[in-house]
## 1
Amino acid sequence: MKVYGHPMSTCTRKVLTTLAEKGHEAEFVMVDIMKGEQKLPAAIARQPFGVVPALDDDGFVLYESRAIMRYLDEKLSGPKLSAPEPKDRAVMEQWISVEQSYMSPKAMVVVMNNMFGPMMGKTPDTDAVAKATESLNTTFDITETHLAHHDFLGGKAFSLADIDWMPYVQYLFGAKAGNLITERKHLGAWWQRVSTRPSWVKVSA
Ligand SMILES: N[C@@H](CCC(=O)N[C@@H](CS)C(=O)NCC(=O)O)C(=O)O
């Protein structure tokens, strides 16, 4: 099994964390997105949208990080990262959707402007950051209410929903916006719980 990705890529990190939680390793093949390697013909053959990650499981090629996470959880031995019960499974899927629809697009604005942009000598667009932060405040207030009654996003147990949220939440800390997490008691406690898991410590090192 091969994972094509980049160690700094949030979507690649979701896949690697899923593998680590399942107690498996895949061969990691670096696609240097800093050099544009994701747009080369060989990469496009695996991921036609020209981004990472992609998985190659003995000739079965799959792209889209969330699809890969679900596939790995179904296929591999190890702890189950999705609840079997329909209501629990649906709650997990709801929080994966919240990440994709409301959290990550706004977190990306903050991270690009406050973390990656300055690394490349760019000046942050403070208006864009303020607008994205306002939206993140709403999303995190809703998340805080949920986590007041649940240890994990998917409910009682650690699941793919937690893994799905972790890479962008971590980058918010690097983008001087970690207060959005730590100033919320339950969200802060959740982050403490999930970010100290050995899988995450390994992948984010
Ligand atoms: N929906 C895709 C998004 C993949 C994506 O945006 N990957 C980023 C890295 S996290 C990338 O390859 N960026 C390089 C580019 O846009 O050219 C997934 O979940 O796999």
## 2
Amino acid sequence: MARHQLRSTLRACIRGGVALSVAALLANAARAQDAPAATGIEHGRYLAIAGDCVACHTAPGGKPFAGGLDLKTPFGVITASNITSDKETGIGSWTFQQFDAAVRHGKGPSGNLYPAMPYTAYVKMTDADMADLWAYIRTVPPVSQKVVENKLPFPYNIRAALVVWNALFFDRTPFTPDSTRSAAVNRGAYLVEALEHCGICHTPKNALGHDSSATYQGTSLQGWHAPDLTNNDHTGLGTWSAEDIVTYLRSGTNRHTASSGPMTEVIVNSTQHLTDADLHAIAAYFKALPARTVDVPPPLPATNAQMVAGRREFLVQCSACHTSSGQGVANMIPTLQGNPAINAKSPDSLLNILLAGTTGPATAANPTGAGMPGFAWKLHDDQIANVLTYIRNSQGNAAPAVSAADVAKARKALGAQQVVWH
Ligand code: HEC
Ligand code: HEC
Ligand code: HEC
């Protein structure tokens, strides 16, 4: 119980004429510290959602927080731990200090944790939030599941080597609000930098897997491209209003696009559950990022051979849904016109969507997300290359051409099928 609460309780007692000894109050306060207040647990649950702990700490089809999900990093596979309250295989016997050391400082019982666990972001969490998060995590029902965490090849399997990584890259500066920014932008910065860790996917990494200085400028991961989130009109969020960002993070779709792949998971597990005020804070944070100028390449001419063939393919295969102008159907079939994700230098997400198809996000705000079928079985590598080159260089877009070799490579990496129908 905080001191001011104690004082106001005392005052209330005196006003009500109830004689309560200070000693009894102090005893109550001590008990309250042993068993965290329900509001602390509830707030901790919200923080776990904002930090998206469940996304990594749950195996496909597995129990929440029981671990076992393999994270593919450039150095090999790291498996997320069981963080349920099971005493043998989870963290049920841990103290707050041990939990804090792992979550904010990357120190586990058997040495340094791999930065695949975003302690580099969580280090910015406040002490009070950390206490509430722990109060909630302790209530997660025990699940007995032994997780072998470290399957990395030599030399990456040596946890001690991470001392060097931490010395080079681990910035332990706590979050400090910037007095030149509005309260909303500061709240957004806290949510994005300390909890949601959007940069883990959207910021390009250096050779040792740490964020480069190109913050939020977009990068590829696991067969997807997480687009540029900076304020520029070509590849970034320059044309998106704050309200567009809010709608996207709440429902998975807006007037510009619909989410797919890893971003759908972020929206379904995490952002759709944030309060309206917090979503607006995140949007305010991104809209306050400095505008960035990017080189816009001239679009390929309509007479280019790939463009001619691609346009034909588009009219036959795609226009029934996306319409011949590429405008689509509001809140159902995303528009392809002036679409920053299509303008991204890397076509990785587009290759993924075209080969494997995509099911739209099913969120509370948009319960029946529309889907797009995959074309791997139907279109040859050159046909997919042509249609992607066409949508990347028409309808207000401009981006490098896609080659049949790019498609062949993605087909193999994604394990997508070969053409079966002609
Ligand atoms: C991006 C994926 C990811 C997210 C998000 C994530 N974790 Fe982790 N976490 C991991 C991985 C991977 C490990 C194992 C790292 C290792 O073995 O070095 C881990 C390890 C841990 C450990 C150490 C467990 C042990 O037995 O050593 C704790 C505690 C933990 N995470 C708590 C959390 C909490 C709480 C959150 C949310 C606030 C969270 N994690 C979010 C990936 C993640
Ligand atoms: C696990 C990786 C991952 C995390 C974490 C993540 N994103 Fe994404 N995001 C992606 C990928 C991949 C895409 C591209 C797929 C798509 O268009 O849906 C994407 C797409 C987007 C888009 C659409 C951009 C466009 O031009 O179409 C926005 C906006 C976005 N993310 C914002 C965020 C914000 C804000 C956060 C933090 C709250 C976040 N993302 C966290 C991977 C991630
Ligand atoms: C049956 C209807 C349908 C057909 C046919 C179709 N699409 Fe789609 N497409 C969709 C839907 C619905 C989405 C949004 C899916 C989601 O929510 O993830 C989508 C998404 C996309 C996206 C991602 C847009 C973004 O903003 O992230 C691209 C690119 C795309 N389609 C291109 C194509 C191309 C090229 C073809 C033809 C080869 C095609 N589509 C055929 C329905 C269709």
## 3
Amino acid sequence: MKVLMLNGSGNANGSTRAGLDIMAEVFAADGVDSEIVCVGAKPVRDCLGCNKCAERGKCVFQDDGVNEFVEKAMAADGFVFGTPVYYAHPSGRILSFLDRAFFSNMWGTGAAAFRQKPAAAIVVARRAGTSASYDVLNKYFGISQMINVGSTYWNEFHALTKDDVPKDEEGTQTLRNLARNIAWVMKCLKAGRDAGILPPEAEANALTNFVR
Ligand SMILES: Cc1cc2nc3c(=O)[nH]c(=O)nc-3n(C[C@H](O)[C@H](O)[C@H](O)COP(=O)(O)O)c2cc1C
């Protein structure tokens, strides 16, 4: 079993990474593999809404790691999406990255890389904007039939730089408890599948635009 984690900061080794590392330690202790992918410091393209992904099964842009992430996601059993807070919202680069990852995987596959798998967003800020940012990332999960895992607080921690991360006792505790819950849900889902309890098939025929 493997958790795929996304670091949505352009700073590959900053606070977001430090939070994901805390979770990776818990996953390892629980016998769950994990991998951290970073959105990187190079430009990440925004979705153009060209819908070419509907024909090709992947995004037309191939130079910023989104298609590679979706390929890894197909094989993953759970997800953590981490972002720093920028002006009280998630980083622009994680939004561009996830718009394209989720949209390109929706057509044909019906979000096969993500659906019916556990997921959680974690957010880090110096001071404010955490719950608004958390809300934004959670929106990807609901429309993709994902299982949103919670912790003992909303999944936020506070740091200006990575050195601050261990000082936030409650925030780091929230991350550890979250990782334990994700590992547990993954194990429960596997036990269910092994016992013949398979995910339901979704109805997918109705697509009603609010246009008259
Ligand atoms: C452009 C920018 C905007 C920011 N906006 C906020 C904010 O709205 N609220 C806040 O508390 N911190 C804000 N911060 C601080 C970062 O969230 C904080 O330093 C975080 O630890 C950075 O994580 P990273 O090292 O993983 O990039 C901002 C930082 C930058 C660079």
## 4
Amino acid sequence: MLVGVLGSCASQGTTGTLQTRTDPQSTYLELRDQWVTKDRDLSFDAEVVLNAKEKALDKQLVLLRDSMITQYRDQHFFPPARYFFQSQEHIEQTQLFKILRSMPKGGILHLHGAASGDAEWVIDQVVGDPHAYVYWTESNRTFTKGQIRFFAENEVPSGFQSAYYLDAQVTNFQDSLKSLLTFDANIDRDSVDIWREFEMVFNRLYGFVSYQPMFKKYFLRAFKNLVDDGIQHVEIRGIFNQLYDLKQSQGYYNRDSTVVYFQEVAEAMQEIEPAFTLKVIFTDLRFKNVEQINERLVAAFQLRQRYPNFVTGFDLVAEEDAGHSTLYFLDTWMKLDSLENVYGVEMPLYLHNGESDWVGVENMYDAVLLNSKRIGHGFNLFRFPHLIEEVKARNICLEINPISNQILGFIRDLRLHPASTYLRRGVPCVISSDDPLIFNYKGLSYDFWEVFLAWELDLTALKKLTLNSLMYSALNEDEKKKALVYFNDNWQKFVDQALVELSP
Ligand SMILES: [Zn+2]
């Protein structure tokens, strides 16, 4: 019967070139192998060829991966299937984490400025600054408990107290503030609640990050953390007209000042890490109306015209399920061509789309039709079979944020994360972290740890994911070449070291 089935399928031309043989088991296995090979050839990393040392490391890494999976299965606890905060400390103690920490990551392409830093460092600054105040009473419509802001002494609104005073008077003040700025195992409800809490954390941080005297220091610290994790290139989504200080309110510092400060931070980083590069994506919120976003798009063009190799594109962010659809801004998108003519620069889009579990959220159509250079998340691409082919044909890269997707409630078990399938279907992807300050971790090693195990990746996949983060970056061709030389050099050093680490 089996031979008959195989023979009949083969005759319909769907199974390759198999001839029915006398040994049905061999026939079956041969056909199976052909199908496995066909799937492997479709994979996003199919063209990567490892050298001898890489092959040796790959073998060791796969052994390590499989022994970890066996152990977790025996314990009935597989961390990537559980909430990140249940295993964060465990992850840090594993040999795999140590290896991934030392792996060159290339670029981080999906990162929000206000949530890119380091909560403990923020708190250190707050309690040490005489002008830092924290709203330390119950939240109301105007202020949120834990909200940080800097004030001149005689201008402090009711409810804000000196951080210095709070630190001295309130038991465990720093821990309490940290728990208001970061998520932990208690934030485990449905995604609507999580988003509300998430936006409250942004409210708390906003007055800190946008305080002009802190701005550069904050990003310098954030980028140092990334470099420590093997990241050489950063693309940050930022809002550009928000800075204030003790004398000047928001609006005094124009958008150019923010760009210049970012450039100064990048130069300071290059003193520490000469290969460091930075690009910024002009961002606004999808809650705003069309007129407001039209105005922001013009502002983005003006900045890009002045800093074409630094301000690299445009995006709209915030909760996709709650905000306007991408189609709602059609009028804005239809202005792109004429604005490109007026300002003489293109405006690549990096649209945050597909970050939704709802079947009816169809923003991916617009992200693809608008030829987004990359798509932030693209989580629900699996719902649109035609779009999967379009994304591949147009060579659009998805910025996948595995831990963020889990924490914000879009998927619990990372084995089932759709990006695992995207990779197997040849969709270009990169791994990113979205809001690491709020998620209380640094770098990309945690995300790589989770997906290495959850998606049963190997060294070929790791290499391709990290290379993608430079290939699909906004670096110009010359910068890309230099970045790749640096990356490849570091990669070979990593391979040598990891081989020693894993030698039997
Ligand atoms: Zn994001």
